[in-house]
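U., I forgot to send this yesterday:
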Amino acid sequence: MAASWQCIVKPSGGGASGPGSRIGGGNQTIGTICQLPAGALWVRFRFACWSAADVPVANAAYAPTSQKGDGYNAYDENGQISVAGWRAVTFDSLTKRSCIEQIAAGTVAARFATSLPGIRGARPAQFEPQVVCSDWLPFDALDRTDGGAAPLLNLRLHVPPEQPAFRLGHAAAPDESLDFVVAGTYSFGNNAAPPYGGLGHDFPVSAMHGIDVICGQPTRTLIVVGDSIGSGDYTTGSGTSYGLAAAQLLTRQGAPTTAAILANPLQTTPCFIGNATRFITDELVALRGSIIVLQCWSGNDPPTIEAARNSFRTALALAAFCDSHGVTPILATAAPVSAKAPEQEAARRHGNELVRRAGFACLDIDRIVGAGTTPNTYKPGFSAWDNIHLNDFGHLAVAEALVSIVLELRT
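Result:
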């Protein structure tokens, strides 16, 4: 059996108040139900925190479920609510290689509790989610009793009483485009431990930042790196992102693909490229054979030609590193955002020309959704209400172009 590892990361956020969704009051259990790729054997949860305070993640549990049901409980193979499948989420900070070796040997890792460190940054543009990964955990999929095909998983995370309020990454409206996050709920009390009770209430929140999956079938990860343009639902409430939509389209065309969306709001290009560099180097062995899309300029950058050149050089260095280590880079031009000043538009255009001449595959977002005007603007129907971000139609147009590039690279 040819097993593969893949990462599903879908950061989400909420407008001017900053990334994440604010959960008021402690002693609550957040629930998430999500769909996994077919053949999922092992899972590892990523938890992320946008709070200033530390957030414990020791009290978490997961279970397979045969149907979406009420979006909160786990259902057994007969379609009945059951608590028998719930298991504790554990943390031991194993490296992926040693963990895979343990999986092969059939040994069990030690357990210990941990917490998400709060953000200690001074400027929003430099913020990045503080991520903690669980152990790799076995996943025993159940056949669906609701007519679906792909396996479903439930996750619960308890927030202790002493935690007055916090923000979690991945906490905007559930993304239905890939059926990744199917539903988000909350309940009062600790229902992430036996007897796993409680009544869930619908709420647009996710208990996780992402899931890593080891599958029994070959898959590919599509990584998208950028600012809020690439994340989809930041600020504007779009229902998808072009990375997720492209992964869905590729999967439907017989090329199983999941997406790792490493796109965060307010970040400059050096910041989000730096975050992605750490992610790639940490997960390099598992990500070989994947594709990475790199945004090379951001409206958050200083509005100068020199800054545009520096941003491009930073992205180009990561592209070259990926290319030499088995991860195929695609460089993306900057979207036709409404320029705040002529010098910013000049910097954006200069950066885009550098991308087009770089010699790597190019996802030319500027031309795909741009009207071709000076300064450039979105074609009618492709921009969100702020004329900066893509709407769902814009993301789909970019996704279709990205799929064409990916399929061409495969041949």
